[in-house]
Write a structure and sequence with these properties.
Order of helices and strands: EHHHHHEHEHEEHEHEH
CATH class: Alpha Beta
Number of strands: 7
Bound molecules: zinc ion
Number of domains: 1
Largest sheet: 7 strands, parallel
Radius of gyration: 18 Å
Low-confidence stretches: none
CATH superfamily: Histone deacetylase domain
Helix content: 25-40%
Distance between the termini: 12 Å
Length: 329
C-alpha cells in the first residue's frame, strides 16, 4: 500500500539547494509508521528505470526534453528550483556546499517520476497506493517550474491510457498551491478532469495575469474546477472540497483512476513562506484526507496518492497521521 524507498527520497541540501524540503520528510514518516507496524517494508526499486524520452513526451515539448536529457541540464534545474535571482546572483543555492552535481538530481527525479507511474499502476490492482514522493504539479509542457521538473502526474496517467489500462482519470489537487502545470497540460484533454483547491492569493497567482503581448500567462489557465481558498476560510475548507467533488461527479463520468496530489503545505506549521495564506490544523488535514479516501472508496475508484509540497520540520506528521488511519483499517 505504501511505496517508499530511501533512494528516491532526494535531499536537496546534497546539491547545495537551500529550500526547506527537509531531507527526511519521507524517511521520518516511514520510520514512524515502521515503528508501529514492523511488517512494513521498503519497496524494492532495483528494477525501477527512469522515465524515458517517450514517457516525457507524453506531457512535455521535445525542445525541453532534449535540453533536460542533454549532458548539461543544469540550466533547466536552476530555472525550475529558482536558484538565481533577477540580478543573476545565486539564490537559495550554494554550489560550494554541493556534494553531488545537479545532473544527478535530474536522474533522481526521473526515477521518482517512474515510481509515481508504478504507484498509479499498483492502485489499479490494489484499490489504493500511496507514494512517499512525487506530485510535481507545477511542471508545464514547456519546462519545469516551482520545484517541479517534470509532470509525473500527467505522464503516469497518459502511460496508463496508452497501455489501455484506463480511459479517463481525475486529478484532485489539495496542495496549497494551484495545480497550474496539470491544468495547462490538460487544457485540450477531456479524458483528464482536474480539481484544484488552493490559496486564492500568493504564488503562482501573485504575478501578472497577462504577458507583455497581452496573452494569459499559462499558470492562470483553469483547471476543470478551481476552488480558491482565502485566509480565514479554513473552517470551511472541507465543505468546499466536498462540494467540488460532488460538482465534478454531476458533470463527468466516474474516472478509472483518481490521482490525489496530497500536499501537506496547507498545514499551519508549514515553513515555506509562500504557503502562509492557508493554515489548516492537523485535525482539519486528517479530515481532508479521510474525506477524499472515503468519497472515492465508496465509488470504487482506484486511488493513487502523491506527496507533493510540504516544507519544514513538521510536514511529515500530515502524511503519517493519514497513513496510520489507513493501516488501522
Ligand atoms: Zn505546494
Amino acid at each position: 500500500m505504501i511505496f517508499y524507498n530511501n533512494k528516491l527520497d532526494h535531499r536537496l541540501c546534497d546539491y547545495g539547494i537551500e529550500i526547506p524540503l527537509v531531507k527526511s520528510r519521507s524517511e521520518r514518516c516511514f520510520q514512524y509508521l515502521k515503528d508501529k507496524y514492523p511488517q512494513l517494508k521498503e519497496t524494492d526499486c532495483s528494477d525501477l528505470s527512469p522515465l524515458s524520452k517517450s514517457d516525457l513526451l507524453l506531457a512535455h515539448k521535445e525542445e525541453y526534453i532534449d535540453s533536460l536529457l542533454s549532458e548539461n541540464p543544469d540550466e533547466e534545474l536552476i530555472k525550475c528550483f529558482e536558484l538565481r535571482d533577477q540580478k543573476g546572483n545565486w539564490y537559495r543555492y550554494n554550489p560550494a556546499n554541493a556534494k553531488k552535481p545537479l545532473i544527478k538530481l535530474r536522474d533522481e527525479i526521473l526515477l521518482q517520476g517512474m515510481a509515481s507511474f508504478e504507484t498509479m499502476e499498483k492502485a489499479l490492482s490494489d484499490g489504493l497506493y500511496y507514494f512517499l514522493g512525487g506530485g510535481m504539479h507545477h511542471a508545464m509542457s514547456f519546462g519545469g517550474r516551482g520545484f517541479c521538473l517534470v509532470n509525473d502526474i500527467i505522464i503516469g496517467i497518459r502511460k496508463l491510457q496508452k497501455m489501455n489500462k484506463i480511459q479517463n482519470a481525475w486529478v484532485v489537487d489539495v496542495d496549497a498551491h494551484k495545480g497550474c502545470g496539470t491544468a495547462e497540460l490538460t487544457q485540450d484533454d477531456d479524458s483528464i478532469r482536474t480539481l484544484s483547491l488552493h490559496m486564492g492569493k500568493g504564488w503562482p497567482l501573485d504575478s501578472d495575469k497577462y504577458d507583455e503581448k497581452g496573452r494569459l500567462n499559462p499558470w492562470f489557465l483553469e483547471s476543470t474546477i478551481d476552488r480558491p481558498i482565502y485566509s480565514g476560510e479554513e473552517p470551511d475548507y472541507n465543505t468546499f472540497l466536498l462540494e467540488s467533488l460532488n460538482s465534478l461527479e454531476k458533470q463527468f463520468h466516474k474516472p478509472g483512476l483518481v490521482v490525489i496530489v496530497n500536499g501537506s503545505d496547507p498545514y499551519e506549521k508549514d515553513e515555506l513562506p509562500s504557503t502562509s495564506h492557508l493554515n489548516l490544523s492537523l485535525a482539519q488535514l486528517l479530515e481532508r484526507d479521510t474525506l477524499l479516501y472515503e468519497w472515492f472508496k465508496s465509488r470504487n475508484v482506484p486511488q493513487a496518492y502523491l506527496m507533493s509540497g510540504g516544507y519544514g520540520d513538521c510536514s511529515w506528521e500530515v502524511y503519517a497521521q493519514f497513513l496510520e488511519t489507513l493501516l488501522e483499517k
